[in-house]
Amino acid sequence: MEKNKINPKIEILVIGGSAGSFEVLLQILPKIKFDIDFVVLVVLHRKHNSNTSIADLFGNKTSIPVYECEDKDSLVPGNIYFAPADYHLLIEKDRTVSLDYSEKENYSRPAIDITFKSASDVFKEKTLAVLLSGANRDGANGLKYISQNYGTTIVQDPNEAEISTMPNEALKIFEPNYILGFKEIIKLINSL
Amino acid sequence: MIAIDIVGDEDLELLLEEVASVYGYDFTDYSKASIKRRINRICLIDKHKSFTELRYKILNDQSYLSRFIEEVTVNVTEMFRDPTFYKTLKEKIIPQLGVNSFIKVWIAGCSTGEEVYSISILLHEAKLAHKAIIYATDINPTVLETAKKGIYPISQMKLYTENYQNSNGTEDFSTYYSANYDHVKFKEYLRKNVIFSTHNLVSDRSFNEFQLVICRNVLIYFDKILQDKVFNLFDGSLESLGYLALGSKETIRFSDLNLTYKQINKEKIWKKTR
Ligand SMILES: C[S@@+](CC[C@H](N)C(=O)[O-])C[C@H]1O[C@@H](n2cnc3c(N)ncnc32)[C@H](O)[C@@H]1O
Question: Gene Ontology terms, cellular component aspect (chain A) (predicted)?
Fold first, then answer.
């Protein structure tokens, strides 16, 4: 389901996920080819106080360097970054990260909406965003915002998503460029 | 809550300059992406339809200023947030402080005080409270009023008790407060050695020397240059061999202090080595 071609040159791939996304990310991230020339930034809802570091968990499975963001870290192309648990993540014009410990949004912190909007404000049409499985409606508005700003948007096929609420909420409010299963998502990312 | 921004980059700069010159609150070196989001959020919540409307309100209605500050300076907080941090304080740092004949602690950006009562509890449990004083400061006088009262919703106590226990707290947490319908009030003795006062990290100076400075989740709202300025303020406010504690995702890595401070464990606590 292809609406139009991917925009000039992607500089950031932002991925938002919630319940049921962890396994999908374990499929997707290790298969991204290691010499990518864009930033990968993942906002994944998870338990605060979980002791295992998300960067270690994924770092062992890919040759791409994986980091959990700290405040004012620079987002460098070729790396994978995770938003830390319990902080919202915003991106500054100079492509450093500002963390924010404010109210939850969509019952979530980090909120996918906040990072999607922020990525779009900085990277504009050079943004590629993927919204994965989840049980709430976080990310839908952010994804729509990216689309309105001429970024490229992908929603995980609700038939494939473990929990289809989040993909469906997005599909209710706008039409993304692609609706894809995780295998096609990998293919598309590696074709960039 | 996502909408096209009402306040753009240039509007933002103009507004922050004006607020600084008219009211003396200088937010011009705050992290742009965060503060822009906060200000656009105010527009949505308070239904300002344009930047002009918001600007007029702020500059002509002094009573609106406190609302503005309240929203711009995020004041979300928790007791014993990040239990492993408090565990390290309790086991590694507080016993060290005990060797001093008089203990001075500065909690900067203490918001509504949850952090202050947490530290006060640790000092009491270490039997050091009698010779300790805590300066608890914030830019926002409204949150300090709440902090002084020590009254919080009872609905939070489940989380705070869990946090306390996870930090290796061994007392019955409910002995620290008395419950009243839907609220609890923390015991008087926990605030006896606390001085609450306004202090603006951007414009106010060092006012004492401490063995421990705690400033958590405040610097994330500052850009790198302002962070650096504040690190120097902290450096000037710490005795030699004193400790600086930051929020769990904050770091001195980008600052000069990195050369003269040594990190304790993997926690966000650094010891001044000179
Ligand atoms: C997110 S809260 C952090 C509260 C607490 N330290 C914690 O970590 O839970 C940030 C606090 O910093 C305060 N703050 C913001 N700018 C400040 C400044 N320039 N000087 C002093 N405090 C400031 C705010 O008023 C707010 O209470």
Answer: cytoplasm
